[in-house]
Design goal:
Layout: E1 2-3, H1 9-17, E2 22-25, H2 32-37, H3 59-91, H4 97-101, E3 106-109, E4 125-127
Parallel strand pairs: 1-2, 2-3, 3-4
GO cellular component, one term: membrane
Family: Belongs to the UDP-glycosyltransferase family.
Subcellular location: Membrane
């Protein structure tokens, strides 16, 4: 099943049918892809979205980066709680969203490594580029 993990209905269906899944994404708002893939994501190294920081930060920038990361925990719970409940009811067992997303075979990440900050990735995460908007004449 090729699906977008932002709305995990495709992954719930793939888990129910016991078929492999491929994720095609730009990013999940609260960094759930890092938690699901168990990819290292320390705030002292990886800049958070909308901070304007790069991977070389001084102490105050690292504190700012950490402060931007704190609301993500609450956002994630609020945003994805209905899907975790839906998955638990449909699959008839307790399941959390990171456990569900952890079962993906391949993550196709629509980021351009040159334009994004460098960050560690797991072997099943593949950059496929994302900046492909060009005007045709």
């Amino acid at each position: 099943v090729i699906t977008d993990p932002f709305l995990p209905c495709g992954q719930i269906l793939a888990e129910h049918l016991s078929v492999p899944s491929v994720f095609f994404l730009r990013g999940i708002p609260c960094g759930l892809e890092f938690e699901a893939t168990q990819c290292p994501n320390p705030p002292s190294y990886v800049p958070r979205t909308f901070t304007g920081l790069v991977d070389h930060m001084n102490f105050l920038q690292r504190v700012k980066n950490l402060m931007f990361d704190i609301p993500n925990y609450f956002l994630c719970d609020f945003l994805f709680q209905p899907y975790a409940k839906l998955a638990s009811e449909f699959l008839q067992r307790d399941v959390t969203l990171p456990d569900l997303l952890r079962k993906a075979s391949i993550w196709l990440v629509r980021l351009d490594f040159v334009l994004e900050y460098p960050r560690p990735l797991m072997p099943n995460m593949i950059f496929i580029g994302g900046m492909n908007c060009a005007h045709k004449k």
